Amino acid sequence: MKKVLLVFVLLLVVVAGVLFVQNYLKIGGFLSLQKTPTITINNHTFELSVADSQKEREVGLSETRSLPERQGMIFTFGKPDYYSFWMKNMTIPIDIIYINDQKIVTIHKNAQPPASQLESPIIYGPTQPSDKVLEINAGLARAYDFKKGDMVKYENLSN
């Protein structure tokens, strides 16, 4: 009986060890150093979801039903250009902030989703090339007095 109990305990230890190692590898190691990317404008900091692949850029926030005030999505591009955005399949209004390097170049405030799927979405673009685009809740750019020329600070953003 003691041998069966010992084998059972050893089996539990092995299974727990395997599960721990799988979880360890999935999150990038024990006490993972991966931190949430953030952006700060005028002392207002937002935690970011990063859209840096073509698929992530296509989906963007279109599957989002609500966005916490201190969160946003940043779209990163390899080089500055005139990147266009639209509100197709969006359900929430947003502010669209175009950034080149560390400076805001264009802000589209309170961009509204189409009223119906039959309505053509408005296409938004910058007034000069940008390499990043930030989307946050509509009204925050006005409430926080964000404007063209404001400096931007990134943390934990790889691109």
Describe this structure in words.
This protein is of the alpha+beta class and 159 residues long. The chain contains three helices and nine strands. The strands form two sheets. A seven-stranded mixed beta sheet has the order 6-5-8-3-2-1-9. The protein has a two-stranded antiparallel ribbon with strand order 4-7. The protein is elongated, with a radius of gyration of 22 Å. The protein starts with a helix and ends with a strand. The relative contact order is 0.21.
Mean pLDDT: 85
Low-pLDDT regions? 24-32
Global geometry = elongated
First CA to last CA: what distance?
60 Å
Write down the Rg.
22 Å
Q: Number of helical segments?
A: 3
Number of strand segments? 9
Summary, kept brief:
This protein is α+β, with helices and mostly antiparallel strands and 159 residues long.
Keyword list:
two-stranded antiparallel ribbon, 159 residues, seven-stranded mixed β-sheet, alpha+beta, 35% strand
Layout of secondary structure:
Elements: H1 2-26, E1 38-41, E2 44-51, H2 54-59, E3 71-81, E4 85-86, E5 94-100, E6 103-111, E7 123-124, E8 130-137, H3 140-143, E9 152-155
Parallel strand pairs: 2-3
Antiparallel strand pairs: 1-2, 1-9, 3-8, 4-7, 5-6, 5-8
